[in-house]
Amino acid sequence: MGAYQDFHQRSIRHRDAFWSEQAALVDWHRPFTEVCDFSRPPFARWFRGGETNLCHNAIDRHLASRGDQKALIYISTETGQEKTYTFRELYKEVNRAAGMLATLGVGKGDRVLIYMPMIAEAVFAMLACARVGAIHSVVFGGFASASLAARIDDAKPALMITADAGMRGGRAIPYKPLVDEALRLARHPPRNVIVVNRGIDKEYRPLAGRDLDYATLRRAHAEINTPVTWLESSDPSYILYTSGTTGRPKGVQRDTGGYAVALAASMQHIYCGNAGETMFTTSDIGWVVGHSYIVYGPLIAGMTTILYEGLPIRPDAGIWWKIVADNQVSVMFSSPTAARVLKKQDPKYLAQYDLSSLRHLFLAGEPLDEPTHRWIADALHKPVIDHYWQTETGWPILSAVLGVEKTPIKFGTPSFPVYGYDLQILRESDAAEAAADEKGVVAIVPPLPPGCMTTVWGDDERFVNTYFTSFRTRQVYSTFDWGIRDKDGYHFILGRTDDVINVAGHRLGTREIEEAVQSHPNIAEVAVVGVADPIKGQMPIAFAVVKDAAAIATPELARAQEKGVMDAVDKQLGAIGRPSHVHFVTLLPKTRSGKLLRRSIQALAEGRDPGDLTTIEDPAALDQIKRALAGDFLP
Ligand code: ATP
Ligand code: MG
Q1: What CATH number did the domain enclosing 134 receive?
Q2: Does 154 sit in the ligand 1 pocket, CB within 6 Å?
Q3: Most buried residue among 51, 199, 320, 622 by CB atoms closer than 10 A?
Q4: Domain assignment of residue 625, yes or no
Q5: Which pTM does this prediction carry?
Q6: Is the Cβ atom of 394 under 6 angstroms away from ligand 1?
């Protein structure tokens, strides 16, 4: 590591010079006067005095050079629809949508809550908000009405935009009844709701006076040009609630100029995506990955972006690779969970398509275990980059930065601190930097770089108290993740600080035990949780999905397999990490963004209520956990 190390060092030591160079990657309507205003720590204001606009940078500035290039490709395996928009067509659609907002009196600083499936109008809506300076709050289309109502009351939107229904696995999921219920529950409902009527929910009936039809409004604004509203760099662009894996969701507030610069720089240095190429990010617009790398990042970079509505294994497990081949995708971004899902399918699906256009596959959102990392890299014959970040940061914290230097990929690690992040692994006891190979809390010395959250929406105090008070002696940002840096400078994430299992005074990360379980060749996926134990304080128990079910076909075989797994843990981690039980299931409870609901599993294991489950992917998974705990033999 030479070139990248220098690049990173410079970003910290010569922060302002570094970021002022990066800022040249986007258009400024008015130049900034100060790169970083850190006069009120830990709050940072980036590119102070500068005026810009995300929509202008994503669309308008490309019109002259690439107006006829594809900007957005919408592919739905749910409805069989495929539609392409050039930058010029996208420009028109966004102008229309922005015109609707303006007609409804929505302008700078107003909030617009977007509760939509993965359809092109959702992207138009987001960009239209950006265009008129409104603050969007996209709420993931899987949230139930109570969660939606809480987000309505927190953001107090002037307007909501939704659709009659989404589709999942071929089934219609009506959205509008949920929205109606949420609006009934909310204390601050907006006056109007724009509804994209896809004709999926035949029961859909607009409420006169409140619900407005998107198609009708679009016709009325067909030829309109809506000028860009220039924003001061620190003006908020959006609010996005954290997924709530660990409690009450926080409204992450993002700025405008810092975010534009951070994304533009990341497209170049991290994702190595060039204007004119195509990016395929398999996330959902309701999550941060969708905001940054389905919508804003690729478009700001002049790339074509793919919006995919559908499952990864329908019609078959080759669908993503077909999309890559058909559209000459060069940058792909997905999640470790998806990689594990694919690992369970027939490998022929990966070999079936011409993937020569693909340069890298990026994965984030959860720990990527070494065997899965190795498997997918081998299967694809492509570099697979594990990278680590959070809703809060908006773009990667740890990653290989291959656009600067082709550092070797080490399996099971998201590599190095990204430029701009003064990342330290701190000892919990005294906030001192941990030695190499010593476990500590992953922390960032403020100011957080451009693009990161600027505060909690409407609650500066909560921002400081939540993120900056973990250590008494130093005001640093805590990621609430454990990490380790090895002697070569590669970083490993060991799990969340509140997911620690304390076995007889030994503190073990769930990730460490899960990795050890996964070292057993027949384990596809596992969740480890700590349950209260009268003698040892806590004991780990594991819920595992096997690759070859024949190995657990009878209770005797299952017991032998359990023993095999325990031996594997003994060997990898030591007997201290050995789960007291390994339960076999075919499905693990996850959120719809693919995160394990360890907290709910743990609650069930301790006989408690599993808590808020509105984002669960498949409720049947919890039944399996319950039955496994009750001693049922599942296979
Ligand atoms: P909440 O903060 O509301 O509990 P969340 O933390 O699950 O929700 P996100 O911001 O989507 O919401 O997830 C970020 C977290 O995901 C990280 O803090 C880390 O725990 C985990 N994570 C993300 N990427 C990786 C990765 N590459 N390796 C390991 N863990 C990762
Ligand atoms: Mg979090």
Answers
A1: 3.40.50.980
A2: no
A3: 320
A4: yes
A5: 0.90
A6: no
